[in-house]
Design goal:
Blueprint lengths: L1 H22 L2 H9 L6 H9 L4 H13 L6 H9 L4 H13 L6 H9 L4 H9 L2 E4 L3 E4 L4 E13 L10 H17 L4 H6 L2 H8 L9 E16 H63 L4 H21 L5
Antiparallel strand pairs: 1-3, 2-3, 3-4
Helix pairs in contact: 2-4, 4-6, 6-7, 6-8, 9-11
Length: 321
């Protein structure tokens, strides 16, 4: 019974000792002390209660102190609670100091909280980055298409990292500058002979304004000749003009056919009216006989005239063999 009680006491003692060393990180406090970092043991305990890993804060303080930087542990803790990457910020500050880049703690934390990798930005300031543009197609004034690829060398602009545009904007502006430069050339041969003219024109436009980068150089890596866009457009225009002319000719033909049909209809209508009028002649003659306006002799004279007229017409008309 006594052995069981003793084992329970030892077990509870180990648990209590673990809790003490967990909430009171003596090892971290001693490491900070021998490294010249002044941080109280109570502050480390309170970090545990605030769910802040003391190891991150202590290691960051040691690194900054050894590098000659003076950082406030409360500011590091506040940055961690705000969702920032304390380790990356301290690495960036140390690297910036070694490279003589102006970067303070407030700027570094703002860049980090903005979603950018501040340590990578400092590295890019020291070692510029090369961005390859996708193929950019443009047409010179002579109608020949050119397809160009460029390499853009940029370095991070620390002051513009918060609120500055990213790589996509730089690539879009460079592509626009290449299109404008090739489009203003009188001939594609001029561009092929002097591809560096594109770089000079694009660099003079100040394309890095408002971006998080500073453009150091723009080099034309490759340029190829594409299609003859001018000839293709002329062919398309000629084909369109031909189609329009055919459509107008078909319209005129249709109008002529319609006019012919209309004239035929009018002629048929006139013949029908003549036939109707001729049909009314016997009726009129009969009415004249009844009213005494036409005598027998007058009727015979009229018949003789009609017979003479038919005879003359038959003589004048040649007979078919």
């Amino acid at each position: 019974m006594e052995m069981g009680f003793l084992a329970l006491v030892i077990f509870l003692g180990f648990i209590a000792l673990w809790l003490i060393f967990y909430f009171i990180p003596m090892g971290m406090w001693f490491s900070a002390l021998v490294s010249g970092v002044h941080i109280s043991l109570l502050q480390l305990v309170l970090m545990r209660w605030r769910k802040v890993p003391p190891s991150i804060i202590v290691s960051s303080m040691i690194e900054s102190t050894k590098a000659g930087l003076k950082l406030n542990p409360n500011e590091l803790e506040a940055h961690y609670l705000a969702g920032g990457n304390v380790t990356s910020v301290v690495h960036a500050l140390v690297s910036a100091q070694k490279a003589n880049i102006m970067l303070d703690f407030k700027m570094a934390t703002a860049i980090d909280l903005a979603g950018r990798d501040v340590f990578e930005a400092v590295q890019m300031s020291v070692n510029p980055k090369v961005i390859n543009t996708p193929p950019v197609a443009a047409v010179a004034k002579d109608g020949i298409q050119l397809i160009a690829k460029a390499r853009v060398t940029v370095r991070a602009n620390i002051k513009q990292l918060v609120g500055g545009a990213g790589e996509e904007t730089v690539l879009a502006r460079v592509g626009e500058g290449i299109v404008s430069s090739i489009g203003s050339a009188e001939s594609h041969k001029i561009v092929l002979e002097n591809p560096d003219s594109i770089s000079r024109v694009v660099l003079d436009k100040g394309l890095d304004a408002g971006t998080a980068f500073e453009i150091l150089s723009i080099d034309i890596a490759d340029i190829d000749v594409g299609k003859n866009i001018g000839a293709q457009l002329q062919m398309d225009q000629a084909e369109a003009d031909k189609n329009i002319a055919q459509a107008k000719a078909e319209e005129r033909r249709a109008m002529a056919v319609a006019l012919e049909q209309e004239n035929k209809a009018k002629a048929q209508d006139a013949r029908a009216k003549v036939i109707l009028a001729e049909a009314e002649v016997p009726l009129a003659m009969a009415e004249a006989f009844r009213n005494g306006n036409l005598g027998i002799m007058d009727y015979y004279k009229m018949k003789n005239v009609m017979a003479d007229t038919q005879m003359r017409e038959s003589i004048a008309t040649p007979q078919k063999k």
